[in-house]
Amino acid sequence: MHVIVIGAGIVGASAALELIRDGHHVTILEAGEPGGRQSASYGHGCWISPASVVPMSMPGLWRQIPSYLLNPKGPLVIRWRHVLKLLPWLLRFLIAGSTVARVEKTAHALATLLGDSPQRHLKLAEELGLSHLIRQEGLLYAYPGRQDFEAEKLSWHLRSMTGLRWKELDAGQLHAREPQLSHRYNFGVLAEDGAHCVDPGAYVAGIVSMAVARGATLVKAQATGFVFKDNSLIAVETDNGRLECDRAVIASGVWSKALARKAGDHIPLEAERGYHGVLVSEENGPSHPVMPSDGKMANTPTSKGLRLSGQVELASVETPPNWKRVDILIEHALATYDHLTPRAEMKLDRWMGHRPSTPDGLPVIGASSRSNSVFYAFGHGHVGFASGPITGRIVADMVSGRTPTSSIAAFSPRRFT
């Protein structure tokens, strides 16, 4: 079959490669460069972790939202012009995390995508000849004290429940692992199986290059719609003409919402914008990925410097970036490490991108309502990069008419109807 994959982020790239393995003729549609700055796959926090099963919406969050919104340096921002449009999504978001039972169910579903994510990435990177881009050295969570860790007991319950291997670190063990950490952090947790990517853009580009080398065609165009004959897909419309095909996979991140509507589904997908700043790494700079509890951000050593990633900004995709969010990340980083200094020449890069987020924190994976010829693979929120390879395998199974090896019922597009 001829399958068109719309989107060349980590999910689309992985799906294309898996479809090639299954013997399909594959065309990848991407308006920008594969692995380019337009993609959430480029600018995320670089973590590949089974620990990421904790949803954004948790019991009691509604009590914290006012303080978050009133704090100009807080981790959550809603652009006020967007509030009315967001209200239905926000209500579903709060309900999704309203009870322990609900978040346990969400964590179990995410664990099916994340449980073996480091191993999948290591295997894929080796196949690509890019093993140097994936490092499995564990991921650190740093706390001022044990009481701050215990304040997150539900999060660690969800991680333990889903099989995460982790160990507690006292102050000495924490600073032995990351000597650059400020001594105001006296307690830590090491997620032992966690990994990270030191150049996500190059990694995703490498997946696409491998797919093309094995027979896929890369077309620089933007998908605009579909052509059906009865219930069967016969073509994808683009801004550069019509491409005939037998199947299509929508994996274009936040822009998938409009395409899904043309395939018969109204998916509550919103842009959960995130930011990163990159600081030039000192010769003896931070060497381990760290998430400081008081910063709610991921600090990750990469090939281009220390990437500081975080912030949740709910706004439309057309809203200009607020680069003060990057300044906040840098301010947190300067407080997290003892030897970082606020020199202008340290600021190597800044980025803003759109996490494609559903209100229940789960991706949308399955066939469209309009036709079993159109498949969805989007809405992964904070876990798209980590879960890209397994999502690609699931997509290939669906397209080929096989039952995926793990249940995808929790990700059904029909759950919103």
Automatic annotation (TrEMBL):
<dbReference type="Pfam" id="PF01266">
    <property type="entry name" value="DAO"/>
</dbReference>
<dbReference type="InterPro" id="IPR036188">
    <property type="entry name" value="FAD/NAD-bd_sf"/>
</dbReference>
<feature type="domain" description="FAD dependent oxidoreductase">
    <location>
        <begin position="2"/>
        <end position="398"/>
    </location>
</feature>
<protein>
    <submittedName>
        <fullName>D-amino-acid dehydrogenase</fullName>
        <ecNumber>1.4.99.1</ecNumber>
    </submittedName>
</protein>
<keyword id="KW-0614">Plasmid</keyword>
<dbReference type="GO" id="GO:0016491">
    <property type="term" value="F:oxidoreductase activity"/>
</dbReference>
<dbReference type="GO" id="GO:0005737">
    <property type="term" value="C:cytoplasm"/>
</dbReference>
<dbReference type="InterPro" id="IPR006076">
    <property type="entry name" value="FAD-dep_OxRdtase"/>
</dbReference>
<keyword id="KW-0560">Oxidoreductase</keyword>
